[in-house]
């Protein structure tokens, strides 16, 4: 096989560009395996790799709780988003009803309001109703998303109406048509929506920072942020904490790469 | 027996009842409340909130710190958005032109996008640490002077910008790659037959046909939540956690300032007024970008 010099140059350049993309993560993991005495040494590799930092993180700090909080909030949000966004998407795509345009525009208009504008009234609302420092308080703004509604509406609109009519003749209820016929046919879109929602939730910072007041209620990013501020020079602990937040997302990414990439591309091209 | 159209419409209303309540109560109403809050001096107890009219808006005109935040925010966008788009397009073109390993490189570039911004910012803040950080050690090794990066009022903002560009580069590469893949091959073949060089092909085929993607990428990098430069918050806070917005306010953004006014000074009415202006600014900027950059593509 003939090797073209242009191609070699391209790959050399790509490999060179990959280094700064990956290196921070590799450095993070390596530093998290160092004992405190070694974190400022010039050697990249720990002379004596140890999991002590992780053990300390999970036994002496609130990281396990924050991890659990993020999982719980993420899981509940994903479940809610999948159900409601797909139901609304289905209704907008497949059921004719008076006022559809109004509903469509109403939901669409909410996409343009920036979060930082909404957090002030959300905070006031949460204070009034006693939602501050509760799981409901953390997750209520995200239980449905306009983005997901439109993603699902697009997915359902490709299904032929004859399929639903056949179900009607077989005596399925309208909900049954959505649940038993339409929903199983849009599984790829549901998967993309689920993963993107979970990532967004796992990484969310501004609202959880505002609404979670006690340490017990922090999500992982909020906890990591304040914990890192407190331990200061203990880079081993900061990198271990960061790794605890990053690695689950990298695993999710490795497994669901195709769905994530398709979801992002579709959301961008919408 | 109900008519089919009635049955469909009835079901639609039942399905939409709860979601409509959600969007009205948690999205539309808070949007209107933000306007309302901006006209008041806020207090925890509703009875003690006083009506100010447009006073909060007038206050913005003479608030030096806000002016700094606005200036910085535009500076972030002016530096970051072109860098984000140029690098995103360049790497997408490069990836598009190689045959093997495209998926691998795409995944590597995209990986930072899925990582929490908080963790990414902390790791970079350590890497960029003035004395012991690895970046300075590399510079030293290459024969350069160590740089203060986040500790210098003149370098901090470009440094934050670079970290954000780094994190979301893969997102833009992905958009551009999808755009490139959607351009039919026959245009390139036709150009080749006509004897067009690589630059002419790029200038007259790739760029015009990529226009819709460029518009999306531009608006996303400028104004989208969590990845748009005009809404920077998480990175700024966590890269300089002990002095958010510093040194000397050089990294302060509008959203960070809103957060500080609202949740550290409990100056909610004023903070709400700033968000109203930001909301309008984001809308206007997005529309202007769309108008200016969008081209009708005719084949």
Q: What's the quick description here?
A:
Chain A is mostly helical and 270 residues long. Chain A has helices at 5-32, 52-60, 63-94, 100-109, 115-129, 135-139, 146-157, 161-169, 174-185, 187-203, 206-211, 220-231, 235-255, 257-269. The longest helix of chain A has 32 residues, at 63-94.
What do these coordinates show?
The complex is a heterodimer of chains A (270) and B (299). Chain A has 270 residues and is an all-alpha fold. Chain A has one domain (62-230, 237-269): MetI-like fold, CATH 1.10.3720. Chain A has helices at 5-32, 52-60, 63-94, 100-109, 115-129, 135-139, 146-157, 161-169, 174-185, 187-203, 206-211, 220-231, 235-255, 257-269. In chain A, helix 8 crosses helix 9. Chain B is an all-alpha fold. Chain B has one domain: MetI-like (MetI-like fold, Orthogonal Bundle). Chain B has helices at residues 4-37, 55-61, 64-97, 102-114, 117-127, 134-141, 156-181, 185-193, 198-209, 211-223, 234-239, 254-263, 268-293; strands at residues 40-41, 50-51. Chain B has a two-stranded antiparallel ribbon. In chain B, strand 1 (40-41) and strand 2 form a beta hairpin. The longest helix of chain B has 34 residues, at 4-37. Chain B starts with a helix and ends in a 6-residue tail after the last helix. Classes of the chains: A mainly alpha (270), B mainly alpha (299). At the A-B interface, helix 1, helix 3, helix 4, helix 5 and helix 9 of A face helix 1, helix 3, helix 4, helix 5 and helix 7 of B.
Give the SSE map.
The complex is a heterodimer of chains A (270) and B (299).
Chain A: H1 5-32, H2 52-60, H3 63-94, H4 100-109, H5 115-129, H6 135-139, H7 146-157, H8 161-169, H9 174-185, H10 187-203, H11 206-211, H12 220-231, H13 235-255, H14 257-269
Helix pairs in contact in A: 1-13, 3-7, 3-10, 3-12, 8-9, 10-14, 12-13
Chain B: H1 4-37, E1 40-41, E2 50-51, H2 55-61, H3 64-97, H4 102-114, H5 117-127, H6 134-141, H7 156-181, H8 185-193, H9 198-209, H10 211-223, H11 234-239, H12 254-263, H13 268-293
Antiparallel strand pairs in B: 1-2
């Amino acid at each position: 096989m003939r090797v073209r010099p242009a191609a070699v140059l391209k790959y050399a350049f790509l490999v060179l560009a990959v280094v700064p993309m990956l290196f921070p993560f590799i450095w993070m993991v390596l530093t998290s395996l160092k004992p405190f005495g070694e974190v400022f040494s010039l050697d990249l590799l720990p002379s004596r790799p140890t999991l002590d930092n992780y053990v300390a993180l999970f036994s002496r700090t609130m990281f396990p709780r924050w991890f659990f909080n993020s999982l719980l909030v993420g899981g509940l949000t994903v479940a809610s988003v999948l159900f409601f966004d797909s139901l609304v998407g289905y209704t907008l795509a497949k059921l004719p009803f008076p006022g559809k345009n109004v509903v469509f525009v109403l939901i669409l208009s909410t996409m343009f309001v920036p979060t930082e504008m909404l957090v002030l009234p959300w905070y006031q609302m949460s204070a009034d109703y006693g939602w501050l420092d509760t799981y409901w308080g953390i997750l209520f703004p995200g239980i449905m998303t306009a983005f997901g509604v439109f993603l699902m509406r697009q997915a359902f609109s490709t299904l032929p109406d004859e399929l639903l009519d056949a179900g009607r003749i077989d005596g399925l209820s309208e909900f049954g048509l959505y649940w038993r016929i339409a929903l199983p046919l849009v599984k790829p879109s549901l998967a993309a929506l689920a993963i993107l929602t979970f990532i967004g939730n796992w990484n969310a910072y501004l609202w959880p920072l505002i609404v979670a007041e006690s340490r017990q209620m922090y999500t992982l990013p909020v906890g990591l942020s304040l914990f890192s501020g407190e331990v200061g020079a203990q880079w081993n602990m900061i990198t271990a904490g960061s790794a605890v937040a990053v690695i689950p997302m990298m695993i999710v990414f490795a497994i669901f790469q195709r769905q994530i990439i398709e979801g992002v591309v579709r959301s961008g091209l919408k | 027996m109900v008519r089919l159209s009635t049955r469909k419409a009835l079901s639609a209303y039942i399905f939409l009842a709860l979601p409509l309540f959600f969007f009205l109560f948690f999205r539309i109403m808070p949007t209107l409340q933000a306007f309302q809050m901006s006209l008041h001096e806020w207090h925890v107890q509703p009875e003690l909130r006083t009506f100010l009219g447009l006073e909060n808006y007038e206050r913005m005109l003479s608030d030096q710190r806000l002016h700094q935040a606005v200036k910085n925010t535009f500076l972030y966008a002016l530096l970051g958005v072109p860098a984000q788009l140029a690098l995103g397009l360049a790497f997408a073109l490069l990836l598009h032109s190689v045959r093997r390993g495209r998926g691998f490189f795409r995944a590597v570039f995209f990986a930072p996008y899925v990582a929490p911004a908080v963790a990414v910012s902390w790791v970079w803040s350590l890497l960029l640490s003035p004395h012991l950080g690895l970046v300075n050690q590399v510079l030293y090794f290459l024969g350069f002077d160590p740089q203060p990066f986040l500790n210098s009022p003149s370098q901090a903002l470009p440094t934050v910008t670079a970290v954000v560009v780094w994190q979301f580069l893969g997102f833009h590469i992905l958009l551009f790659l999808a755009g490139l893949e959607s351009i039919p091959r026959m245009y390139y073949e036709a150009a080749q037959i006509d004897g067009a060089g690589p630059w002419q092909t790029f200038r007259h085929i790739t760029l015009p046909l990529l226009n819709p993607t460029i518009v999306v990428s531009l608006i996303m990098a400028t104004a989208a939540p969590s990845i748009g430069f005009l809404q920077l918050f998480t990175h700024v806070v966590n890269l300089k956690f002990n002095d958010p917005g510093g040194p000397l306010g050089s990294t302060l953004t509008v959203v960070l300032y809103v957060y500080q006014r609202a949740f550290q000074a409990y100056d909610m009415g004023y903070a709400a007024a700033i968000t109203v202006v930001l909301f309008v600014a984001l809308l206007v900027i997005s529309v202007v970008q769309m108008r200016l950059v969008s081209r009708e593509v005719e084949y």
